[in-house]
Every structure is written in C-alpha cells, then in structure tokens.
Amino acid sequence: MTNETPRHSVSVTGVVVRPEDGKVLVIKRADDGRWVPPGGVLELDETPEQCVVREVREETGIEAKPIRLTGVYKNMNLAVVSLTFLCEPVGGELSTSDESTVATWLIQEEAITRCPEARGIRIADALSGDTAYVRAHDGTSLI
What we know:
Shape: globular
Structural class: alpha/beta
Distance between the termini: 35 Å
Largest sheet: 5 strands, mixed
Order of helices and strands: EEEEHEEEHHE
Low-confidence stretches: none
Radius of gyration: 15 Å
Mean pLDDT: 95
Helix content: 10-25%
Number of strands: 8
Strand order of the largest sheet: 4-1-6-5-8
C-alpha cells in the first residue's frame, strides 16, 4: 500500500495591459468558449515569469514582459494554483492558436465582465494597485 500525498498543479495567468489605452488582452478558449486572460501550466524547467511569457505568446502571438505578481488563486475542485502576473506587451502580432478562437484587446470593464468571476477577478486585482491577492474559487465563482 502506497501513501501518496495529494499534489497541486501550478499554472500562470498573464494580465497584459496596453499602456497607450489601458486595454486588456483576453482570449476566447477553444475548448469551452469561455473568455479568459491567457495562461497555462508551469513546466518543470521554467520559472513562473518564463511560463507567463511563453503562455501569452503561444495563445495570442503577443510578447509580454511580466511586471509583478498580483495574485495567487486556487481552484479548490481541481487543486490548481494559479499565479497571476501584470504584464506589458513588448512586441509580437496578435493571433489565435489551437487553444483560442479569438484573441483581442478589450477595455478593462468589458474584459472583466466577459470572463467567469474566477478569471475576471484576476484582471480586476491586477489593475487595482500594488497589493497581491490570495483567493479561492470553484472554477467559475469565488468561494
């Protein structure tokens, strides 16, 4: 009999904000049609900052520079911990990927309201100032 310790998956989310107009980068996911900021699973050989740069590029074509950690969010149902970074765009061309049917820049309020609460709050938190938030959710709603 093995005594396995439960394990968490670690992901990142990039809240990429254009400095010239304050618009936020979001995608419409190909798998479930939800609007979310770009992000994904942290690989074993990369730092969280490297991961957010890679995930934003893969999902949107945009090159992003992480500015600061803005929150830690745990999906209590899936045991996924996501680290959210405020980022600025530094290049690239906006495009979709296998994971996104739409990649676009939206005004802040629209980006927040299009996303499920558990994703929209990451945008709101990233835009709210210098505080890093810690929140739990069920995959859709905060708990």
